[in-house]
Amino acid sequence: MARTRLTPERENELYTAVLDLLGEVGYEALTMDAVAARTRSSKATLYRQWGSKAELVVRALRNNKPVHLAEVDTGSLRGDFQAVLALSDDCQMEKNSALLRGLSHAVHTNPDLFQALRDLLIEPEMTGLAKLLQRAVDRGEVRPDNPALSYVPHMMIGAFAARELIEERPVDRQFLIDYAESVVFPALGV
Question: pTM for the full model?
């Protein structure tokens, strides 16, 4: 069955409701019935539009990202990194971190959620980061044979996980800037 096109406003309204519910009840307890009730829509419409709870949740998360990494090009790696961070505020970062932490538990028992996260969120982010880093290589900022290049995603994901575990504090912009200046850029020779 063909998907009817929702207006961008209606789609944003639905995504906001999904993320609010996700934050309130978690992935396991989130139901299409609850989303339908919260958004004054039918469950059939939701399934027709998104196919599954997993796809709806991940698309809502993807929609919530203010920028796609591949689109940022300031002319320098440091500038690109700062531009990406400038587009999100600490409050939103904390909320997103909490949502992703909640989903990290749910992926172990929901292969459809894991696949949707890989396809719709993780892979596009990795592709965007690879393009951002390739531009730095093309500009001569980073040597193409630098072994740290392939570990930048691991470093960034590690920063998010470690801050919570070690300091019991959410990641914020200042932490990420300090982390990049202290760890990522030196590893890349920037």
Answer: 0.76
